[in-house]
Design a protein that fits this description.
By secondary structure, the protein is α+β, with helices and mostly antiparallel strands. The protein contains four helices and eight strands; from the N terminus they run ααααββββββββ.
Length: about 170
């Protein structure tokens, strides 16, 4: 090795990497990684709950009952119309009309309406509906624009007679 090579190598070294420098560089690198991971975990948990069903086991058990209820609902051959119209301010007005197989409005029904967000269950909204007359209900709710699942349940004396779930888009 010549004097010239030795001089170049000593000048190019610049700052020396000691054990402490490497330790602090590694701690800083992994500290940034952990901080970003912590931020991502916090944002993920605070924006979406991640829960689709409360108990998948119970939902599986209820499947047979739901299938039997769907067959009974189809046998009734009811005709149910639901219309959503923009009301005063941010409210949406909901009108429901029910007719049985003979075209007559069934009496003594209770209606339950829920607007569910497809992505976030925390934004679900129950709507209070009132019966105007046999087979005709109305209600209103303040809803944001976007996609909603309209879940309509009709029952008589606690027995569910009709359940419908329809995707609606509010503008």
């Amino acid at each position: 090795m010549s004097q010239w090579d030795l001089a170049i190598s000593e000048e190019s070294v610049g700052r020396r990497w000691t054990g402490w420098t490497i330790l602090f560089a590694l701690l800083g690198f992994f500290g940034v990684i952990f901080a970003v991971n912590g931020l991502m975990i916090y944002e993920a948990l605070s924006t979406l709950s991640g829960v689709d069903t409360d108990s998948a086991y119970q939902a599986g058990i209820m499947f047979e009952q739901d299938a039997a209820a769907a067959k009974a609902q189809a046998a009734r051959n009811w005709h149910v119309d639901a219309a959503i119209r923009s009301g005063a301010g941010a409210d949406e007005n909901l009108e429901i009309s029910v007719r049985d197989a003979a075209g007559m409005p069934p009496a003594g029904l209770d209606a339950s309406v829920t607007f569910e967000r497809p992505v976030d269950r925390r934004m679900d909204r129950k709507v209070a509906v009132y019966e105007d007359g046999p087979g005709h209900f109305h209600g209103s709710a303040a809803l944001q624009a976007g996609q909603w699942d309209l879940v309509l349940e009709l029952s008589r004396k606690g027995e569910h007679l009709f359940i419908s779930r329809n995707r609606v888009i509010l503008k």
